[in-house]
Design a protein that fits this description.
The chain is α+β, with helices and mostly antiparallel strands. It contains three helices and four strands. The strands form two sheets. Strands 1-2 form a two-stranded antiparallel sheet. The protein has a two-stranded antiparallel ribbon with strand order 3-4. The protein is elongated and about 80 Å long.
């Protein structure tokens, strides 16, 4: 494990959670968007993470777990994709005066639930904080190690 690898791991977690918070904010901002460039209502976006690619010859976390060893040497996390939530139904609301109402007077609103988004935002915020705490702990250990080496 390189000297800066723990910093890279914590920083990758912070970067990924910050991106997730940005996507959640976009979902919340579009909670009432009934017409997008594609013509339909806004569709909620979901962020998916995955383990960063490891250097050649380094076993993946999955393989190490299978072998039940404790010698994990990972490289952090990255955003693997941002996909649209196609499983959650759009919200249908009766409003015949709305310009986007169908022939029956119903408007399709985005499949964004503000409570769910706020819960996800709190989760992402706490994960970001955990990575920040880990980064600070790594920094403190590195600083202590350097001062021991100087003494």
């Amino acid at each position: 494990m390189g000297l800066f690898q723990p910093f890279d791991i914590a920083a990758s977690g912070m970067t990924a959670q910050r991106f997730r918070m940005d996507v959640i904010a976009e979902n919340i901002a579009n909670v009432s968007t009934t017409r997008t460039e594609n013509g339909g209502p806004y569709t909620r976006k979901i962020v998916t993470f995955q383990e960063k690619q490891l250097k050649a010859g380094t076993p993946s976390f999955r393989n190490i777990l299978k072998e039940s060893t404790a010698a994990y040497n990972g490289n952090g996390v990255k955003v693997s994709k941002v996909s649209e939530d196609t499983e959650t139904d759009y919200i249908m609301e009766y409003d015949p005066s709305h310009p986007d109402a169908d022939e029956n007077g119903y408007v399709r609103y985005p499949n964004v639930n503000t409570v769910t988004e706020m819960t996800n935002l709190i989760d992402a915020s706490r994960a970001y904080e955990a990575n920040t705490t880990a980064f600070q702990a790594i920094k403190s250990m590195a600083t202590s190690g350097i001062s021991i080496g100087q003494g």
